[in-house]
Amino acid sequence: MSETLLDIRDLRVTYQTEEGLVLAVDNLNLTLKKGETLGLVGETGAGKTTTALAVMQLVPNPPGTVESGEIWFNGENLLKKKNEEMRTVRGNQISMIFQDPMTSLNPVLTVGFQIEEAVMLHQKLTSKQAERQARDMLKLVGIPEGRAGDYPHEFSGGMRQRVGIAIALSCNPSLLIADEPTTALDVTIQAQVLDLMRRLRSEFGTSMILITHDLGVVAEVCDTVAIMYAGTVVETSDTRRLFTEPRHPYTQGLFGSIPSLDEEVTRLSPITGIMPDPTELPSGCRFHPRCPMAAEICSQRTPTMVPVEEGHNVHCMIYEGLVEAKKE
Amino acid sequence: MDQNTTTPLLEVRNLKKFFNTKQGLLKAVNNVSFEVKQGETLGIVGESGCGKSTTGRAILRLVEPTAGEVIFEGEDITAFRPDRVRAFRRDAQIIFQDPFASLDPRMSISEIIREPFEIFKLYSRNEQLERVQELMKLVGLSTKLTNSFPHELDGGRRQRVGVARALALDPKFIVCDEPVSALDVSIQAQILNLIQDLQDRLKLTYVFISHDLSVVRHISDRVAVMYLGKIVEITSYHNIFTNPQHPYTQALLSAIPIPKVDAKRERIILEGDVPSPVNPPRGCIFSGRCPFVMDKCREAPPALTETADGHFVACYLVNDTAEEPES
């Protein structure tokens, strides 16, 4: 449990756009232990998906560039790997589930074939064996094996996401990256898919990065959480501590913004202002223009990581003792 | 949100909206009845395809109802001729889901908010511009943005433009159709607060449609739960969480992940998908997925019946009345 599987260090990814250079991910550090599920949380443009694509070496280039950093996976730096070498990692040791099950499957191939394709590429199986494996995977995710010959459009959204999960798990990867896997689904279908993912994770012992904007999903599924804002991680913690004692003003603001299902809250306390323009990120702490606690120094200096407790790290100058924490 | 006011501003009776499709008759809204009191917010919640948006549009006659009555301030708007419908639009407006699609990209913010005045030939040019500025301030938009175009604004501010446009004609009633679904949570909270503040200031009445039960519960006085074209339960925002009666409402609630670490609840995982509204089950629409299904559920649909004060449920477990057969 304590062995590190993935260690991202000082990652920086940029996109060259017509509006200017977008700093999508900057100064990002993350670790994931074996067997653990990490929730990567943030709003649109926080850099969650770019981080995942960087791990997979799938950042579209151009316009994107992984400018610097290291991504250590099982003791190897993925950023140093050649394209051909990455191909044996991708889909085999690390696989990904995408948000939109409507567009991530190939519409002109049967779902059975799309699973076979993955296993035949990475495992030395005959086509008969691959077909068997594909049918077994379908059964595992709750789809009758007789439907292996059906095309994606013949399935509902929830079923298509199950197919995506079957493909991703078909080679028994040690790391699964799920990018908003249930965002496009209705809530009762989301419950089915989350239930399936939890079950398979313990069955396969897969480590997982779950990208989401939904703190409810995190509370249910994840062991640890990293909160991202404007391209960088602002707080990491085990799930329990993050939900009981959020420390970063942004994390606190997120919790204040969510309407409660079980409590009486007459008025939400949202974060003021809007997400910064990614081509003109604020100096110093990226969150300072929206932060209720911001002091002068926040616009001048980038906060360093402060461990507030064992396993709970915050990037905020309040915890460096440089800014006074105001009571709201 | 005056609880003592009892006059319904809007009464919907046996509303139906059917669409002819290649697959057959699609019953998007099938015999829906509810009322909305002056100054209250009625939330309508349900999953994709349950008919919540079509209901919202049918009560404004943005789609023509197939059958049923929509009584607004004592008059049946389904009987209105086109010119009366036009006049009705001054009283009843809509805020759309996607602020990226609902604003004309070629019009400036000022032109978008001003358009209703042009259509109804209200105010002189200068008064119009003044009114635009007032509306922009009201919804929290900097007046510096007057001549900007929608693409220059982020989602939250675009939605504020949509709100300002809906308010331009001083309506009494607004249908909010998933107004925050396309927004990030921090921006969503700002818009929800705005919608609440405007209700207090302008004494507005809302029908608030969303797939997100947390959002609906937060903003509504009463909540209607829809499934496959029908309302299965209506009750107060409080009861919907503490005392849900319909098995679908219970399943829906239990499926929502709560952002707390010790939110241990019994989860009811529904089997299968929502059936097609083209061929809905013959009896209770939920019978195919209901964990408590009985024989009679498959025969005739249960009627939406008042089981306690203001709490309506359509389920044989709670009340034995069947829906009246269609004539």
Name some characteristics of this structure.
heterodimer; A: 328 residues; alpha/beta; Rossmann fold; 2 domains; B: 327 residues; four-stranded antiparallel beta sheet; 12 strands; 23% strand
Give the low-pLDDT segments of chain B. Answer: none
- Outline the low-pLDDT stretches of chain A: none
Quaternary organisation: heterodimer
**Cα end-to-end separation of chain B:** 38 Å
The level-1 CATH class of the largest domain in chain A = Alpha Beta
Query: What is the number of independent domains of chain A?
Result: 2
Greatest interface and its residue counts?
A: A-B, 46 and 42 residues
Our Rg estimate of chain A from Cα atoms comes to 21 Å
The percent of residues in helical segments of chain A reads: 25-40%
**How many strands, which pairing sense, and closed or not: the largest β-sheet of chain B?**
8 strands, mixed
What does this 3D model show about the protein?
- The complex is a heterodimer of chains A (328) and B (327).
- Chain A has 328 residues and is α/β, with parallel strands linked by helices.
- Chain A has two domains: 4-93 and 173-315, 3-Layer(aba) Sandwich (Rossmann fold); 104-172, no CATH class.
- In chain A, 29% of the residues lie in helices and 25% in strands.
- In chain A, the strands form two sheets. Chain A has an eight-stranded mixed beta sheet, sandwiched between helices. A four-stranded antiparallel beta sheet of chain A has the order 2-1-4-5, with helices on one face.
- In chain A, a hairpin with a 2-residue loop joins strand 11 and strand 12 (312-315).
- Chain A is globular.
- Chain B has 327 residues and is α/β, with parallel strands linked by helices.
- Chain B has a single domain, classed as P-loop containing nucleotide triphosphate hydrolases (Rossmann fold).
- Chain B is 28% helix and 23% strand.
- Chain B has nine helices and twelve strands.
- In chain B, the strands form two sheets. In chain B, strands 6-7-8-3-9-10-12-11 form an eight-stranded mixed beta sheet, sandwiched between helices. A four-stranded antiparallel beta sheet of chain B has the order 2-1-4-5, covered by helices on one side.
- Chain B is globular and about 65 Å long.
- The mean pLDDT of chain B is 92.
- Classes of the chains: A alpha/beta (328), B alpha/beta (327).
- Chains A and B meet through helix 6, helix 7, helix 8 and helix 9 of A and helix 6, helix 7 and helix 9 of B.
